C-alpha cells in the first residue's frame, strides 16, 4: 500500500508547498480573478526575491560566510538602474519597443556590472579578513550595510526616487476578469530564466560541480587539489551581480525607492534563505516563491498581518524542518 | 631517500598541543601502518601532512620538498590523496560526479577507470546513484576509488575498515595490496588484524608522539610490545 507521504514525496515533496498554499488561498479568497492577480504578483515578487537571495545562500553554503551586507547590492542595483533609466527616459517613453528594451537592458546591465565590481571589492576588503569568524562577519557586514545606505543617501539624497518604467512594460493584460501587470510577467520570466541558467551552471558544468561539492565539504574539495577561495570570490561576485539585478527589477516594480530599501530587503532575503535551506538554489527558489505568495495573499486577506506573515511562515517552517525546506546535503 | 619524512612534527589545534613529536620515515612503495589508541593523534597526523592543520615549520618533507605550511590544494597536487575517517564523500553528488571531480582534466582516463572496476566491481553498478544513498562499504569503495582516479604517489587513509562488514574489509585489503604495488599507502588503523596482513613498516603513536617504529614482522613477533602499546584490545 502506498501511503500519502510516499505519494507526496514522489510528486515533488516540499516543492508542492507553493501549490498547496495557492490552493488554500483560492478557497479563502473566493474570487478567482483576484486570486489570479495575487498569485501572479506573488510569483513575480518571489522571482525578484530569488534573484536577490540566491547569491547569499551559495555564499553561506560555500564558505560559511554570513553576509548581512548582501542587500547593499540590492539597494545599489536599484539606484544605479533608476539613474540609468532616468537618464534614458527619452528612450523609455518612445513607442519603439527596441529603444524601450535597449534602455531596460542597459539599466539592468549597469546594475549587474556595478554589483559584480562591488562584490569583488566587498569580498576582498570586508569579507576576506573575517573568514571563519561569524561574530566579526555579522558585525562588519552589518556595518557595511549601514555605510552603503549612507553612501546612497549622499549620492541620491533622502527623498524617494521615482523609477520610470519602459513604455512596453506599462499597463496590464486582462485574463478573464483578472488584470495582470505586464511588468510582473516580465519579472517572473527574467527570474525564471536566471534560475534555469544557474541550474545549468551548477549541474552541467565543472565549476558548478566544484561549487556543489564545496558547499557540502570545503576541506575535501581542497584535499582533491582545488582552491575554494578562488572559486568563492567568483561565486560572491555572481551573487552580488544577481542581487543587483534583483534590485534593478525591484526598483521598476515599486517605481519609488528610498535608501532604506537595503535594510528592508535584508530581512526578507534572510527569511527566504533560512526557509529554503542554506546552500541550495532550489531551496532558495522555493523559499522566495513561498514568501512572495504569502506576502500577497496575506496582504489581501488580512492586511494588518502582512508584515508579520513572513516571520510567522519562517517560524512554522523552522519548527517543522529546522534546517529549512530543501537545504544542500551537508 | 624516503618518500615522506616527518621530523619532530608538532601540531596545535587552537590552544591545544595535540602532536608533540611525530617522527616518521616513509619509504617508497607498500603499506605503512600507523597504529595507536583512540585519541593518540593519528588523524591529526594525517591532517597535518595534508595541510588541514598547521604542522610546525620544516617538519614535513615530501620527495625532498618542505611542504609544511603549503596550501592543502597544492599538497594534493604534488600527488598526495587523502581518504578521511568519515570518507569525505559528497552525498549530494552522484558516484560518477564524485569521481570526475577528482580528475585533473575533468574527464576519465579509461585505463584508470577499468582498474577501479577491477578493484571494486560494485562501483559500476551504482555509478549513477546519489552518493548519500550508498551503504558504508560502498562509500568507502568510492572514497578509495576517488583517491586513485589520478596517479598518486602517496595515499593517506584513515581507519577505512571502521564499521564495515568482514567481506568488505577483505575486499578492501585486497584493493590496498593491489594499489600499493605502485602507490605508497599510509594507513591508519585500529583493526590490528587487518593492518598486520598489509603493512611492511609500521609505527605506533601515543599521546602525540611516535613511541615505536619498525617492521611489521618484528612487531607481530613481540607480543609484549603489542600489549603495552596498543592495550589489551589489540
Ligand atoms: N578539532 C579539535 N579540537 C580540539 N582537539 C582536538 C581536535 N581534534 C582532535 N583533538 C584532540 O587531539 C587528540 C588526537 O586526536 P586524533 O588525532 O583525532 O586521534 P586519533 O585519530 O588517534 O583517534 C585527541 O585528544 C583529541 O581530543
Ligand atoms: Mg582518528
Largest sheet of chain A: 2 strands, antiparallel
Strand order of the largest sheet of chain B: 6-7-8-3-9-10
Instruction: State the secondary-structure class of chain A.
Output: mainly alpha
Over all CA atoms, what is the radius of gyration of chain B? Answer: 17 Å
Number of domains of chain B: 2
Question: How are the strands ordered across the major sheet of chain A?
Answer: 1-4
Poorly predicted tracts of residues of chain B: none
Task: Describe the fold and architecture.
The complex is a heterodimer of chains A (330) and B (234). By secondary structure, chain A is mainly α. Helix content of chain A is 75%, strand content 4%. Chain A has a two-stranded antiparallel ribbon with strand order 1-4. A two-stranded antiparallel sheet of chain A has the order 2-3. In chain A, helix 9 (206-216) crosses helix 11. The model of chain A has no long low-confidence stretch (mean pLDDT 91). Chain B is built from ten helices and ten strands. A six-stranded mixed β-sheet of chain B has the order 6-7-8-3-9-10, sandwiched between helices. In chain B, strands 2-1-4-5 form a four-stranded antiparallel β-sheet, with helices on one face. Classes of the chains: A mainly alpha (330), B alpha/beta (234). Chain A binds chain B through residues 206, 209-210, 212-213, 215-217, 219-227, 328-329, and chain B through 50, 52, 71-73, 76-77, 81-82, 84, 88, 90-93, 97, 100-102, 104, 106, 132, 146. The complex binds adenosine-5'-diphosphate and magnesium ion. Adenosine-5'-diphosphate (ADP) binds next to strand 2 and helix 1 of chain B.
Top keywords for this entry?
heterodimer; A: 330 residues; mainly alpha; two-stranded antiparallel ribbon; B: 234 residues; alpha/beta; Rossmann fold; four-stranded antiparallel beta sheet; 25% strand; binds magnesium ion
Amino acid at each position: 500500500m502506498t501511503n500519502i507521504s510516499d505519494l507526496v514525496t514522489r510528486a515533488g515533496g516540499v516543492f508542492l508547498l507553493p501549490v498547496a498554499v495557492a490552493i488554500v488561498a483560492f478557497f479563502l479568497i473566493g474570487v478567482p480573478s483576484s486570486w489570479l492577480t495575487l498569485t501572479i504578483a506573488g510569483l513575480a515578487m518571489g522571482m525578484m526575491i530569488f534573484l536577490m537571495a540566491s547569491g547569499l545562500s551559495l555564499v553561506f553554503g560555500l564558505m560559511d560566510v554570513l553576509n548581512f551586507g548582501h542587500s547593499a547590492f540590492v539597494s545599489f542595483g536599484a539606484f544605479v538602474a533608476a539613474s540609468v533609466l532616468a537618464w534614458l527616459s527619452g528612450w523609455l517613453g518612445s513607442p519603439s519597443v527596441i529603444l524601450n528594451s535597449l534602455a531596460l537592458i542597459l539599466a539592468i546591465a549597469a546594475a549587474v556590472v556595478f554589483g559584480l565590481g562591488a562584490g569583488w571589492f566587498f569580498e576582498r576588503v570586508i569579507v576576506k579578513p573575517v573568514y571563519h569568524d561569524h561574530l566579526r562577519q555579522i558585525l562588519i557586514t552589518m556595518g557595511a550595510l549601514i555605510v552603503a545606505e549612507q553612501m546612497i543617501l549622499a549620492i541620491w539624497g533622502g527623498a524617494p526616487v521615482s523609477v520610470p518604467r519602459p513604455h512596453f512594460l506599462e499597463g496590464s493584460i486582462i485574463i478573464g476578469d483578472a488584470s495582470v501587470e505586464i511588468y510582473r510577467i516580465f519579472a517572473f520570466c527574467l527570474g525564471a530564466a536566471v534560475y534555469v541558467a544557474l541550474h545549468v551552471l551548477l549541474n552541467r558544468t565543472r565549476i558548478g560541480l566544484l561549487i556543489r561539492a564545496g558547499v557540502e565539504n570545503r576541506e575535501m574539495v581542497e584535499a582533491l587539489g582545488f582552491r575554494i577561495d578562488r572559486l568563492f570570490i567568483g561565486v560572491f561576485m555572481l551573487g552580488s551581480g544577481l542581487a543587483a539585478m534583483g534590485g534593478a527589477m525591484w526598483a521598476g516594480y515599486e517605481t519609488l525607492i528610498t535608501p532604506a530599501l537595503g535594510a528592508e530587503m535584508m530581512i526578507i532575503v534572510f527569511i527566504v534563505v533560512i526557509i529554503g535551506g542554506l546552500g541550495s538554489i532550489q531551496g532558495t527558489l522555493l523559499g522566495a516563491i513561498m514568501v512572495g505568495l504569502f506576502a500577497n495573499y496575506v496582504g489581501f486577506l488580512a492586511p494588518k498581518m502582512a508584515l508579520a506573515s513572513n516571520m510567522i511562515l519562517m517560524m512554522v517552517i523552522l519548527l517543522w524542518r529546522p534546517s529549512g525546506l530543501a537545504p544542500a546535503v551537508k | 631517500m624516503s618518500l615522506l619524512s616527518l621530523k619532530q612534527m608538532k601540531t596545535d589545534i587552537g590552544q591545544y598541543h595535540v602532536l608533540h613529536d611525530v617522527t616518521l620515515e616513509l619509504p617508497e612503495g607498500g603499506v605503512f601502518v600507523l597504529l595507536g589508541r583512540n585519541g593518540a593523534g593519528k588523524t591529526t597526523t594525517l591532517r597535518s601532512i595534508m595541510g588541514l592543520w598547521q604542522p610546525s615549520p620544516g617538519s614535513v618533507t615530501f620527495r625532498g620538498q618542505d611542504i609544511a605550511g603549503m596550501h592543502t590544494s597544492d599538497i594534493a597536487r604534488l600527488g598526495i590523496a587523502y581518504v578521511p575517517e568519515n570518507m569525505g564523500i559528497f552525498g549530494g553528488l552522484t558516484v560518477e560526479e564524485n569521481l570526475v571531480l577528482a580528475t585533473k582534466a575533468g574527464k576519465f582516463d579509461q585505463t584508470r577507470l577499468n582498474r577501479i572496476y577491477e578493484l571494486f566491481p560494485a562501483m559500476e553498478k551504482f555509478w549513477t546513484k546519489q552518493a548519500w544513498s550508498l551503504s558504508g562499504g560502498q562509500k568507502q569503495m568510492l572514497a578509495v576509488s576517488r583517491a586513485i582516479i589520478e596517479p598518486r604517489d602517496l595515499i593517506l587513509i584513515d581507519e577505512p575498515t571502521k564499521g564495515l562488514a568482514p567481506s568488505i574489509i577483505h575486499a578492501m585489503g585486497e584493493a590496498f595490496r593491489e594499489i600499493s604495488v605502485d602507490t605508497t599507502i599510509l594507513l591508519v588503523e585500529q583493526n590490528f588484524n587487518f593492518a598486520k596482513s598489509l603493512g611492511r613498516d609500521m609505527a605506533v603513536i601515543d599521546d602525540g608522539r611516535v613511541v615505536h617504529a619498525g617492521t611489521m614482522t618484528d612487531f607481530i613477533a613481540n607480543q609484549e610490545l603489542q600489549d603495552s602499546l596498543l592495550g589489551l584490545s589489540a
